[in-house]
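For the sake of transparency, this paper describes our internal protein records without simplification. The tokens are whole numbers drawn from a learned vocabulary of local backbone shapes. One such record is reproduced below, unchanged from the form in which we store it.

. . .
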Amino acid sequence: NLDLSSNSIFGPLPTAIGNLPHLQDLHLSDNTKLNGTIPEDIGQLKELQYLELSGCSLGGFVSENHFHNLTKLVLLELSSQSSNPLVFHVSYDWIPVFNLTFLYNSDCRLMSPVLMNYLSGNTPRDWMRLQDLTIIDLSNNNLSGQIPSSICSQLRSLKWLRLSNNNLSGNLESSLQNCRNLSALDLTGNNFSGTIPDCIGENLHTLSDLLLGANKFTGNIPHKLCDLSSLLVLDLSQNNISDGLLRNWMMNLKSCESLYDPMHIDLNVKGVEYEYIDDVIGLIKKFDLSSNNLCGEIPEEVKNLMALGSLNLSHNHLKGKIPEGIGKHLTSLVTIFGV
């Protein structure tokens, strides 16, 4: 085990790192001055299980040679702060030799056909070697096209799917129809349009975190979302939702208790980042419906959301009085906007 994370190490990774045949864990994350390219010699570490290189300034290409003998790899964490970001470039028919349970890949460029096909649905067999994967984070990339239904049908253990800040679009109903075990879904900052599909409320019963903000959704808030009894965080902000029946929707909303505890939740409330971790996460709820076309009065039923921690209804077309029961009943409220 070699853990040098969160230090001030600088310069490139030495090629001699491939001469550590018994190394199982390599943690070099959060060394912002660690630069250069990732040497292909890292692919010789046959015993390697954990590879963490996020939060560094590494750049250049990453090819299948970097993973040539990493048959025991279960965790891969890569992100780059370099102006020359990491670029995945592997052959079209490459099949990974490892079986990941955790994949974090942010602020990189996924240029290779096989990785793009993970999100296009053209080559669903590419997911077959990753059947133990529980977390996928491919946020802040340039991915486009539709999320394939195979991503959930083949990854039965998938709990957390984060694809925020890409250029994804397409039919969400067909993409999510098999995602019955998801606990967290983050599609913020993409190009999804149309109405929010009912299948989210019908099929994703264990969902505790639903983030669909900054897309192009229209229409009403689906009443089926009221059936998500584990819902903890709901973000539908910055869309074009025009639900005039907000009262009816809140009347049907069940009291939520988390059934699944993700590692952490990052919430952005009016530009301020809040991070909730581990044991406090079951006490927090966020409902963000800001920057839509909601109309009518603020429903009295909002006071029934007893564990609500953050409520944002700003930048809509709401009118009428502020419900008198807010101060009396919402004792857990930390932030409130637009009310």
Q: What stands out?
A: The helical segments are 113-117, 150-153, 172-176, 199-203, 246-252, 326-329.
